Amino acid sequence: MSDENATTTTAPAAAANPTTENKGTSEASAPWHSGYAERLSPDTYEAAKPLFEKYGTEEEYVRGMGEQAKVVGKKGLIKPGKDATDEERGAFFNELGRPEKAEGYAWSPAEESKFHIADQERYTEAQGKLHALGLTQDQYAGVMDLYTEELGNLLGKMHEQQEGWRSESEATFKQEWGEDYAREGKAVMAETEKRGLREVLEEAGLINHPGIIRLIKDAKDGTAEDAVEKSEAVRSIDAELDELKKTDAWKNARHPDHTKAKAKYQALHRRKVGVS
User: Which pTM does this prediction carry?
Assistant: First the structure.
């Protein structure tokens, strides 16, 4: 059989695959970000959807996010607004370098400052307040260093002032009291103890103030003088009472002046009670 007589059989054209066509049509009509619906939780996807929809394709979205990252990097951290939550402000402060908690601050006073924490409760309270203000670790350490420096300066000036008072008192009262200086000094301190003032004056740094010493000495001397005067007044009244009791007017109830004698006795007795 020759080639000319050969029958050529042509295979029928393949029918279009309706499944493939439908799939292509579906993918073309679905938004580019629909695939994220399977990878993200429903809530997250819905929240991000407005952002996705700003871009026509995923490539545009990626480029846009990259540009935003550059802008944020140039601007640095954005300070929370007045309506920000405590959590947002806290996150901002922590990002700047604040410890997560107030007790996370680390600081040690300089050795020469001789600073020590006398009241741990107040110190802890101050830490909390500084933490609430958003101080970073470095800022906290700087504030504490400044505080101890200023406190040291203040205490130094107070010490100088107290030494000045002590020197002034010593010079003044040595001249006034002469040989009685040591004895009078001890007597003044004893009077201070007696009145319960010594501890208060020492804490206030006034124990050697010349005005305070003079005031206490005057009070001490005044007390002694008052006691002498009172005892003399009592003796005088007692003497009058004794003389009154010797009179007939006092002894004889029928005496015309007996009532007067009784009234005088009562008056003298009231004076005695008032003096003593």
Answer: 0.45
